[in-house]
Amino acid sequence: MNLNLFGHAGQWLMVDCGVTFKEPLQPQQSGLASSETFDVVSADPAFIVEHKEHLAGIVITHAHEDHVGAIPYLWQRFQVPIYTTAFTAEVLRRKLAQTKLADKVPIVVVNTGDTQKIGVFEVQWLAITHSIPEPHGMVIKTPAGTIFHTADWKIDNNPVLGKGFQSRPFKRMGEKNMTAMVCDSTNALRPGHSVSESECYAGLKQLINEASGRVVVSCFSSNVARLLTLGRIAKETGRYMALLGRSLQNMVSIARSTGYWDESIPLAEQRHIGYLPREEILAVATGSQGEPRAAMQRLANDSYRDLNLDKGDRVIFSSMIIPGNEEPIENLVKALKAKGFDVFQAHETELPIHASGHPCQEELKQMYSWVKPQIAIPVHGEAEHIASSAAIAKECGVPVQMAGLNGDLYVLAPEPAIRRQAVRTGRIPLVQ
């Protein structure tokens, strides 16, 4: 649930404003009983709300919920323009349409490579590769120094959707004495290189092609590239693809309206899917993390209105297990196997059927070596991920590595320092 603030000359720039789901307000501690969880949780924005007259604007890097999902709940507290690209803007507009803010939030749509003057900040949008359309990193320039905020990224040379990763802009940064790089550290403990999104095709097609009955695939609804891969496999294997779950249907609708969907893919109406022959069905369902009200859980309980599965039907989890979701996923898989369904999870298959959207160690090394920042600021991970990313930065010759916690204030110029717990932070439950 990202919420980043960059400050200079008495002004602030917010980068991303996201949520998490079904989480407590206090981080879990080993040995202690779970505290109460809330449906939607965001970072507590109290600090910037108290200084909102100094907030110049909000930049959204991409459309994942942990980067954009809090805007409909919190924007009224900020009341500043939002800058983002077309796909993310459409996702945001649809969220706002469900609130009283539909026509009140000023959204400035930008393109790759654009530079916007936002208060004292000059912000340039740089294309990266991730697991959703139009992800961008930000170059943030001020008179005091220049920061590269990577956002979520990976190096994918063949990403299914959009252009492959272009290294040239990042190599150019290395010639410009970058003050700092704020870097995604989610996979910093994983050696090697992340799997390309295009590599999922072979594994998914093999599992779907071998199935004699119905096939249900569960994946993250925001991964339009994965949905396109599944749609093309459906076409090649003589199946009709149906989308089970509102978030999947909404995401394909957004992809269509922004030009990212292949209209030749044979989509079946959800209400018709139960009448098709078993061997012609490829359903894509929400609920890969064991969410109690999602389509996968209802299929496991025989309570999905438009489709029932039979013994021998195949269920494929084209997704990772998000830390913290181990138990609900395990329970869901047990329930599916108890019904006699063939179940395949991403960590069990010989060929990849899921690709992470975050960089592994070799990609981090490449990025640090290209950008050559004076300061490395690892973010987006637990303490061990951040420590690993900092160590990689040091190995790559970055002079200063600053590893901190939520609420720490990173002073980047003129002399690097961290003011520990300078700002009160926490979590708040959100209710519209």
Automatic annotation (TrEMBL):
Keyword Zinc applies: yes
Protein name per Swiss-Prot or TrEMBL: MBL fold metallo-hydrolase
Native species: Aliidiomarina taiwanensis
UniProt GO MF annotations: exonuclease activity; metal ion binding; RNA binding
UniProt xrefs under InterPro entries: Metallo-B-lactamas, RibonucZ/Hydroxyglut_hydro, RMMBL, RNase_J_2, RNase_J_b_CASP
Keywords: Exonuclease, Hydrolase, Metal-binding, Nuclease, RNA-binding, Zinc
Metallo-beta-lactamase domain sequence ranges: 1-193
